[in-house]
Amino acid sequence: MPDPYGERALLTPAMTVGHDSVPEHERERLRSYLEAVVAARLAPVHAAVAFNAAYFGYDLGGEGYGASPLRPEDFPVVTLGECAPVLPVGAMVCVTSGSDPLFAEIVYREGAHPEASAHGDVPAWVSGAPAGAKGPGEPGEGGAPRRRELLVPDLDAFGPALRLSPTQLHRLRTRQRWINADGHLVVDVCYPSQEAAQRDELAAYAEHLLSTARDQLLSPFVPVSLAELVGGTRDEDLWAGLAGIFDTIRGVLDSSELLRTWGQYAMTRTSLAEWWQDTGPLGGDDLRSLAATLEHAAVPVKRRYMHTSAHPVYTAVGPKLRAFPGAADLLTGTGYAAAVCRANVALADVIQRDSEQGLFASGSQITLDDAFESGGVWRSLHSGAPEPSGDPLRPAGRGWASTLPSEAEPGMDLEPVDLPLADDISLGSGELLRSDGTDVVWSAPLRLAHLSDGWFPLPSEAVDDLCWSQDRCPTLRLELSHPGQTVNEKEAKQDVAVGLEQEAPRLTGILWPLDFFPGLLIEVHRSLGGDTIRMTTRLLRERVLIGDRETGHRYDPRVLTREDVPGSDRYGDSAAGLGPRQLVMRTVRRCGLLTPDGHALMDRVSLPTAAYGQLPVGADTASLESAVVELLEERVLEPALGSRDALGQPHHPACDGQPVIALIGYRPLERRVIRPWGGAEEGGALLGVQFVPGHLRRLRPGCSPSEVQRLAFRDYCRRLGKADGWELPYGYTFVTEHTRGH
């Protein structure tokens, strides 16, 4: 069985790029370990907890994290009072509770809205409501919202040494200050912003690791440090590395034949099958009863001489489970998380097996409306006709949306429009680097129009010495260089014309290499008096991946964001035929507010109008909103807050005195490209060589590290920011970075 502190580290540099970049044999080692972790733990294993297991070294022999050299003093200390800090799933904390400090790993989290009844009935406005909402259609002020949440701590995660005794735990549960009788934390969480409250669990955990738990993240006692995996301690590199590892872990969990996932939680198929066959409380009979209850929840009661109409009913899974006889004891501790996830998986299976997109033969339609509140809120409607819902298992938030003012819908279908770039003139303007009367050096990014029409702008200083006539344009010999890439003969040396048809001079008739893209920076050099002009690209220190674009060359992030979008290439530029996800990405990147680093932010409410030129029909609006939800969940887009001025224009950050609005943003995040085992680097690097970062390894009994390894570990600590260095923990050695292979 793979071991985080074994001969080979479980986490590798390739995993910091994402699941698709990881060689299969590395995925298989991680998958084998995580399958064992899911089988060993009592609660469903969230992707953040799976990361903890691999990163902090969870022992499968019963000691948990207690068998690792982790230092409890590095854990964030939390004091729970009237308003609690954000504690995402995965947070390892020491909760101060008088004389009984509580060491725990948060393994599950959900909303605990006071309006959810003990029987599971939920007012429509609560389902999908933003944090801090006050009532139907009342989102609250939004500056620093509060939300009541239920957190499930695993009190056994750190082994017997840090576990509370039964007497201590009973005393805490009896007091019920901040831990209730079920052993759960029920707290009012204070968010710094609405944007923070809208983050998905993994994004919230990444923020927690890079701020509150930074010392823990960069501890030299983890099996292999994230700083070693990404090659530095810059926040940008650490954030990108975490995003890549989270993507790898989710991909590994989703691809396992032994596991089932509900959202970001993983369970073994064996445990789910056993619960279906169980005839006791919360077993198969109760799960089938729950599904039948939801199917008939919204069936109108027929009354004589009275007209009945269909109204949706919203049911919360967590409270509903408590209503089953004999369920109370099974819903304490981590058992609650297991029961809620099993129930949601059971409902999903029934919907996928017995309905058509959530519509049952009985005329009832069941869809998931809110995946976070009270264990999950399901929407039941009995209308006999399907509503346009898309995926019935993707949270739609219709309850909250139904309380907001609705827009009038046009009566005809619309096609997406191609709006002109508002910042087209200023976008990607060039820079004159040198003009000394002998040489002129000019730098500018490639634009989509340059690639499509084969031209490139020039400063007037570069062509002042040329002779012009009415019969013909001057010609120059273009020598094009693209370091690290092969350029064919026709592209490397070509004859081009200098044109003055436009306001500024330009080179025309250029054959651009196929791998050139909008935003690629081009440096142009011409010696005055000569007939040659030279163009070259400039290498980055390492290859990077920005969205779907991989490059090893310098680029302008603003142009890349605006013009390297779905539906655009050198052969055409149109939104026609794009699916909802592609249309959302194109619209946000083309029409959003643009920052110097290429971050595009768009008013979420204005997205449909920007995509279609006017407010589209309801089905198109719903499909765009569903795509936005997907992209936010997958962290392709990110939520933000801004404001709207008196003219209706959005601003970011929000301006004082203006109404706060929800924004969606695209950020061209750079990720290092790490070549898989057996691959070749650019420029003919060795084949079959794998980089192995420095990492801790557990020693066999009776062995001890050499003085060389002790010194190497102290140097490793200094690289992580520990100025004096630390000593190797007992029973471990340090393996210095090296390459493996031929």
State the helix count. Answer: 20
Gyration radius from CA atoms, angstroms = 29 Å
**Percentage of residues assigned to helices:** 25-40%
What's the total number of strands? 33
Q: For the largest sheet, list the strands in their spatial order.
A: 12-13-18-19-15-16-17-14
Shape: globular
Largest sheet: 8 strands, mixed
Beta strand %: 15-25%
Low-confidence stretches: 303-307, 407-411, 675-688
Give the terminus-to-terminus CA distance: 26 Å
Key structural traits:
742 residues; 5-stranded mixed beta sheet; single chain; 8-stranded mixed beta sheet
What is this entry, summarized?
The chain has 20 helices and 33 strands. With 742 residues, the protein is of the alpha+beta class.
Word description of this protein:
By secondary structure, the chain is α+β, with helices and mostly antiparallel strands. Helices cover 27% and strands 22% of the residues. The chain is built from 20 helices and 33 strands. Strand 3 and strand 4 (102-111) form a beta hairpin.
